Amino acid sequence: MCDLHGRSAHADTPPDAGRRSFLKGFAALPLAAVLLDPFLALAQSEGLEMVEVPIEGEKPLRGALALPQAASAPAVLLIHEWWGLDDQVKAVATALAKLGFVAFAIDLFDSDPATDVDGALKLVQGLDPATATAKLSAAIAWLAEHERGNGRVATIGWGFGGGWSLYASLASPVSATVIYYGNVEKTAAELKALSGPVLGHFGILDVNITKEMVERFQEAMAEAGKAETLIVHWYEADQAFANPAAGRYDADDARLAWDRTLEFLRAGLG
Question: Which of 77, 102, 237, 270 could covalently link to 250 via disulfide, CB atoms 3.0 to 4.6 Å apart?
Answer without folding.
Answer: 237
